[in-house]
Amino acid sequence: MKDIKTEKVLIINSKPDSFFVYFKKIWHYKNLIWVFAQRDIKVKYAQTMLGITWTILQPLTALVIYTVFFGVILNWSAGDIPFPLYVLSGLIGWNFFSYIIYQGSSSVQDASFTIKKIYFPKSILPLSKVVIALIELLLSLILFIPLLLYYNVSISWHIVFFPFSILFNAFCGLLPVFFIAIFAYKKRDLFHLLPYIVTFGIWLTPVFFTNSIFSARFSFLMDYNPMANVVEFWRWVLFNYGSFKVIWVANFFIVMILTIVAMYFYNRKENEFSDFI
Q1: How far apart are the first and last CA of the chain?
Q2: Cα 102 from Cα 100, distance rounded (Å)
Q3: Which residues, in sequence order, are CB contacts of 30 under 8 Å at separation 6+?
Q4: Dihedral, CA atoms, 36, 40, 42, 46, nearest 10 degrees?
Q5: Most buried residue, 1, 50, 75, 132, by most Cβ within 10 Å?
Q6: What radius of gyration do the chain's Cα atoms show?
Q7: DSSP letters of 161-172?
Q8: Whole-angstrom distance, CA of residue 53 vs CA of residue 145
Q9: Do the Cβ atoms of 56 and 142 come closer than 8 Å?
């Protein structure tokens, strides 16, 4: 008597998956993260003369502007490290964060045609934006080479914590993305407000200024700003700038847990997305 082979059947319905099942589905469709990332990179740099070189030119332009205005005209300094290195180490973290927010928040709307044609966990879309942001971050690190040589500054051994700085940075970007998607898929007013919120946020994060500009009475606010923690952690990892703070570890786990919770509620709402795009 022949053995009867049973095949697993994937059942898709409108009922939200349990959190464990949802993460299993994300892992099952993980290849789509790279597929969407590749597609977006090709679209982003299509019909441009410089192509992916813009990934380096954009942070370079911001670096020159901030260095000239704040470092030369206003004569701000960063203490132990040259001001251009201080600014660049802040920019890579902030640009990584802002790219995830801008692109991740609109990822569902941008992929509306694909969503209506095939099924996949919608978390794949913002996660693919993290991949693109990571590629651009790694390319922008090239800018450090001439600056390190010119100022004769060496990289700290803390660079072994580089993966944790990436994770912390990514969680800070994904957390608002999932919450925005939850509350804004019906009413998109928040998308119009988002650029102003992010632009204002850089003035509350020590990207091009040091915490010393705040009085002792308000300096504690930087400890409760996760992106301020991220930027300071980047500088500690790269140059051993400043001292390690326990609050970084606490905020890392808080942001990570909140991101996972946000993904859970995102999972419960994502089946409704196709009705509003």
Answers
A1: 53
A2: 6
A3: none
A4: 160
A5: 132
A6: 21
A7: GHHHHHHHHHHH
A8: 16
A9: yes
10-21 pLDDT, tens per residue? 555 556 667 788
pLDDT tens digits for range 87-97 = 999 999 999 99
Q: Is there a contact between 237 and 159 (Cβ–Cβ < 8 Å)?
A: yes
Per-residue pLDDT reduced to its tens digit, 39-72: 888 877 766 666 677 788 888 898 999 999 888 8
| CA dihedral sign, ordered 70, 74, 77, 78 | negative
Enter the pTM of the model.
0.86
Cα–Cα distance between 254 and 241 in angstroms, integer? Answer: 24
Alpha-carbon dihedral sign for residues 98, 169, 183, 225: negative
Instruction: Convert 128-139 into a string of H (helix), E (strand) and C (coil).
Output: HHHHHHHHHHHH
Helix (H) or strand (E) holding 19: helix 19-28
What's the rounded Cα separation, in Å, for the pair 212 and 114?
A: 49
